[in-house]
Design the sequence.
C-alpha cells in the first residue's frame, strides 16, 4: 500500500491547514503562537492517545508549551550572547532559540539532514567547555548509553552553562526497556526507541553526572488549575522541565 503514501501525506497537509479554522474559539490558549482555539488537537495512538494535546496552528505539544512558559519566565538565561546546541530541534523552539542566540545557534540530530550537525549525543564533536547552553528534549530515552551522553553534555558546557534535558517519566525508578518490539531491524537505520523508562530518580541521575539539577512542574509556572487547563499543560503527558547547570 506504499503507493497510497503520497495521498495520505497530502490529506494530512490539508487537514493541518484547515485545523485553525475548524477549531476556532477561545477556550484554550497556546502560549507559543499566542492563538486561541475551542480546543487542542488529539494526539498519539493506542495507550498514548490523549485529547487536547497539539496546537492546531503551530503544532506545539504539551511539553513544548510547558518549556515555552519556562523560557519566557526565565529571561535571565538569555541575558548575554549564547552558543546554544539544540538537539532534535522542534520548529517553534528552534525559531525562539535562533532569535536569542543568533549566529551562536547550533542545530543537531542523529538522522535529519536539515540541521547544522548530524551527530551522536554520546560522542559530541565539540571541544571542552565551548557551549553556553544545551536544549535536548525527549531524546535520552532513545540513546543506548545515556550516561555517556550526559557526560558529553557536561564536558562541552562551560562552567556556569545551563541545559534543559527533558525526558518522559513513566516509572517510579528508571529501568532499561530493551525489547524486541522497540529495537529496529538490522536494515533499518533509524535509532531504536524508548530503550529505557525514566522514573523520578532522573534528577539524581543528572546530579550523578556532575550537574546541579532542578525540576519545574506545571504548577510551579501556573498556580491556577483552570489556567493550566486553558494552556493545555495539565495532562499526564506534559511532564516536567529538567534544568541543569554545570558548576563553575
Sequence:
Amino acid at each position: 500500500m506504499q503507493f497510497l503514501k503520497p495521498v495520505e501525506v497530502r490529506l494530512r497537509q490539508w487537514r493541518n491547514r484547515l485545523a485553525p479554522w475548524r477549531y476556532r474559539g477561545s477556550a484554550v490558549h497556546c502560549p507559543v503562537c499566542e492563538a486561541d482555539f475551542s480546543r487542542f488537537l488529539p494526539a498519539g495512538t493506542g495507550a498514548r492517545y490523549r485529547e487536547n494535546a497539539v496546537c492546531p496552528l503551530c503544532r506545539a505539544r504539551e511539553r513544548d508549551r510547558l518549556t515555552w512558559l519556562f523560557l519566557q519566565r526565565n529571561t535571565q538565561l538569555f541575558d548575554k550572547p549564547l552558543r546554544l546546541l539544540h538537539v532534535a530541534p522542534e520548529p517553534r523552539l528552534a525559531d525562539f532559540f535562533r532569535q536569542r542566540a543568533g549566529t551562536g545557534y547550533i542545530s543537531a540530530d542523529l538522522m535529519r539532514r536539515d540541521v547544522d550537525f548530524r551527530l551522536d549525543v554520546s560522542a559530541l564533536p565539540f571541544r571542552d567547555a565551548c557551549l553556553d547552553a544545551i536544549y535536548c528534549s525527549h531524546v535520552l530515552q532513545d540513546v543506548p548509553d545515556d550516561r555517556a551522553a550526559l557526560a558529553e553534555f557536561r564536558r562541552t558546557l562551560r562552567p556556569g552553562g545551563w541545559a534543559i534535558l527533558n525526558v518522559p517519566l513513566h516509572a517510579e525508578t528508571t529501568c532499561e526497556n530493551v525489547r524486541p518490539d522497540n529495537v529496529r531491524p538490522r536494515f533499518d537505520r533509524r535509532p531504536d526507541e524508548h530503550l529505557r523508562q525514566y522514573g523520578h530518580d532522573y534528577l539524581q541521575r543528572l546530579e550523578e553526572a556532575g550537574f546541579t539539577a532542578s525540576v519545574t512542574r506545571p504548577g510551579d509556572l501556573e498556580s491556577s488549575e483552570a489556567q493550566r487547563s486553558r494552556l493545555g499543560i495539565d495532562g499526564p503527558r506534559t511532564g516536567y522541565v529538567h534544568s541543569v547547570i554545570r558548576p563553575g
Observations:
- The CA atoms of residues 81 and 101 lie 6 Å apart.
- The longest strand covers residues 157-166.
